[in-house]
Amino acid sequence: MTDKAILTCALTGVLTNPKQHPVPVTPAQMAAEARDAFNAGASIMHVHLRSQEEGYGHMPSWDPDVAEAVVNAIRAACPGVIINLTTGVVGKDISGPLACLRRVKPEAAACNAGSLNYLKIKDNGEWAWPPMVFDNPVAKIQQYLQVMAEEHIHPEFECFDVGIVRSVAMYLKAGLFTGVPELNFVMGVASGMPCDADLLALLPRYAPPGAVWQSTLIGRAEIWPVHQKTAELGGMLRSGLEDTFYLPGGERASGNGVLIEALAACARRAGREVASPAEARRTLGLRPGPTRS
What we know:
Number of helices: 9
Strand content: 15-25%
Number of domains: 1
């Protein structure tokens, strides 16, 4: 891993209601939040898309026109920024994500690297939502990777469990992708890996040789010591309103910028400076792009 810390901002979530939480929805809102995060040190913006219809801003969208409007607004607000577009859907139909990838041609895109029983249980023993499978079989992953290769998009493999981490090396050996392997250790989903610093320290050994990695940490106060551990271990760092609404002191975050400021502070406490977009591009082997001065 590079000595400099690459910071990613996850700007908004999948279903978080903007009437209840300060998540951006419109292109202008996404661009403003991205600019705050960019100024705080984020080189990469992880982008989810929302319906732009009035009253439906909490629902996801796979409209390529929405993708283009959002991504163009972010790029205009943040010169040289790296766009990482989400692709995650349940089911076999991935035409929406593929159409968005082809339209906006992001430098990077998330590629969920394995299936997971996606569960959450309430204190009273009732399911928070009906038990579901987040299905990511190899055939589906291969479809994503084929389009990413055609469009010169760097895959970021999202890994919700240890077996999924180990699978990425098999994808590489099978020739499903080339380039710098990038793994994202997702911790804090109730039926996936817990947000645990001791577990985090073990995970890089199961990544392919030469891989870079980051952690996505979902939760409240418990995430910040693990962010610090990520910084100390040399990983990339990610936060944003998709992952948490809480700052290290327990207060609610007013937006994405303050979360990235806290993330940059973790890096500097570990003796690491924050990477520029140009430095992040070189580390990840991305195609060149404009850089901020």
